[in-house]
Amino acid sequence: MKDIIIDTPAQKSVIHCGEGAFEKYAPGLALRQVFVVTDSNVFAWYRHDIWRVLGGDVPIYIIPAGEPSKSIRYLTAILREMLSHGMKRTCTVVAFGGGVVGDLAGLAASLFMRGVRLVQIPTTLLAQVDSSVGGKTAIDFEGVKNVIGTFYQPEEVIVDPRFLSTLPDREIRCGLGEIVKYGALNSRIYELLLQNKADLKSTAFLEEITYHCIKHKADVVTEDEYDLNGVRKTLNLGHTTGHALELCYRKKSHGEYVLIGAYYELYIAEKLNICGKNYADSLRELITAVIKKVPVYEDVATAAKLAKFDKKNTDANVSLIVPQSEGKSAEIKLSLEEYIKLLEECSADLKEGK
Ligand SMILES: NC(=O)c1ccc[n+]([C@@H]2O[C@H](COP(=O)([O-])OP(=O)(O)OC[C@H]3O[C@@H](n4cnc5c(N)ncnc54)[C@H](O)[C@@H]3O)[C@@H](O)[C@H]2O)c1
């Protein structure tokens, strides 16, 4: 088991990673006034662990599983429940679940009485490698993803691979989506991905790569906690197009859209000569090792227009973080027309099997 620390002026965040982290660190929470937020699936699998570790009478709010719960409706419901259970300023919100639970409960913790302690216990691969770390909280609002939120560091994150044993295969793929994104940003992660390409879902590999991804994110967040100096936005690789497709189609999960977004954005980078062919081929192979068939979008323009809501945009152009070379990314700005044209070309090439 290893610890990673994010030490920012606002809050020190300790991330405990490894098998056994839950049994070692969660019982300590029983000594505090805690309020648990989880979702219906996680509760079904792990309610006995919650009760065993935190007591049978611990207040729990259970949201319906899925992205639609990342909403103002469930945010207010959680805050109302916290109030009615007499939560004090010294209480701790425990976000026990995937990224949806983490983002929503994190936002509630940052708002209740101007901010109470937050502990994340991520139970999906995606939440373990990415969303539980770094302090971004959010809900979706008026059809726009993550448009309301705060920066609010969890005091502790308990990352235990034991929770992955009940995760559907598709959710493992979603986590791998974010892991491949890290691969495009960090040479060591890229190397590990290439070495393990034949068996990316093995337990030992996932535990090792999770540590490296969290370490990468921790270093980035330490350097640019509030996404101000350009370092943190590199973590957005694949997300501009991914979020736009997610908002438009809502058929797949966040991690899958990130990977599809990364594929389309890699195509753009290669077309614009930002990324060389050899590296593009190798990264493409990694992406398609996780998502076998990248979808063709007949009407990609409708989705692309949603990219104008992306928080990176500072003018009428669409800002993208694209792969450049091993461990290196670049920010580019395209007019909406140019962006749509390149996405359409990528989709047409995919359709022709190129
Ligand atoms: N804050 C950030 O920095 C950040 C970064 C990346 C993604 N996100 C957000 O994270 C969300 C996606 O997170 P996610 O992929 O974890 O989705 P999720 O929370 O919806 O979980 C995916 C599914 O897995 C189920 N599940 C969770 N843990 C399980 C377990 N151990 N066993 C069985 N089933 C389990 C859930 O009930 C759900 O059905 C998106 O809303 C995205 O915007 C946030």
How does this structure look, described?
The structure is a single chain. The protein is an alpha/beta fold and 354 residues long. The chain has two domains: 2-166, Rossmann fold (3-Layer(aba) Sandwich); 169-351, Dehydroquinate synthase-like, alpha domain. It is 47% helix and 19% strand. It has helices at 21-25, 40-54, 72-84, 99-111, 125-131, 169-185, 187-195, 203-223, 239-249, 254-271, 277-290, 300-305, 336-351, and strands at 2-7, 12-17, 34-39, 60-63, 92-97, 117-122, 136-141, 144-151, 156-159, 318-325, 328-334. It has a seven-stranded mixed sheet. A hairpin with a 4-residue loop joins β1 (2-7) and β2 (12-17). The protein starts with a strand and ends with a helix. The relative contact order is 0.10. The structure holds nicotinamide-adenine-dinucleotide. Residues 39, 41-42, 45, 65-67, 70, 97-101, 103, 123-124, 126-127, 130-131, 134, 136, 146, 163, 166-167, 171, 174, 253-255 line the site of nicotinamide-adenine-dinucleotide.
* Distance linking N and C termini: 44 Å
Major β-sheet annotation: 7 strands, mixed
Q: What is the level 1 CATH name of the largest domain? A: Mainly Alpha
Number of helices: 13
Q: What amount of the residues lies in strands?
A: 15-25%
Question: What ligand species are in this complex?
Answer: nicotinamide-adenine-dinucleotide
List the helices and strands in order: EEHEHEHEHEHEEEHHHHHHHEEH
CATH superfamily name of the largest domain? Dehydroquinate synthase-like - alpha domain
CATH topology of the largest domain: Dehydroquinate synthase-like, alpha domain
* Domain module count: 2
Helix content: 40-55%
Characterize the overall form: globular
